[in-house]
Amino acid sequence: MRPQRAGLLWTPGWWGWTDGIYRWHGGYWGETVGFYGGIDYGFGYFGSGYVGGHWRGDQFFYNRTVNNIRNTRITNVYVDNSVTRNVTTINRTSFNGGAYGVAAQRPPAAQAAAPTLMPPTAEQMRQHSMAVAEHAQRFDPARAGPAVYGNSRATERLVEPAAVRAPGRAAPGASRRRAAAGRYARMERCACAGLRARGATPRAGRRG
Question: N or C terminus: which one in the chain shows less Cβ crowding within 10 Å?
């Protein structure tokens, strides 16, 4: 995601327990990464700060240790293995406070600081609006989580095959394509059976 200008870093949003309710704390751009509830989002956001990359002048360099860099056109990379952690207990909690949330507290330095904050970009807001409109992203007690966990870029729609999906959840339209293929196969078998009943030899047809 390209920020408004070089030198800015993204602080992700987080859910936190405040005054008896869970409230959403929106993300923002700033020159430093602020508090995001102690939530381990991965990719360098391990609950405090950010170790996924840094700016060198007007160029951003990615830490290959915590980012899955598959695009060969991305050459601004480095390796810093010191940021990896040996975690034996997997904690998937994604909210702060309350009875079962992450117990991290905002550091006093972060409370006293008053950094210059910038709102999400227009691309991020469009992505947010698109995700809100997706009913498959809403809470459903019958399933373990949302249909899509993430996108590779902000302009990627949730229905695209590249979206990171929950295990066993196919992209929308995949089931329709499988059903159509099944109907075609059944029609083909019935047609061949009819030809054999009349003594004719089925020919291999070309699928359009």
Answer: C
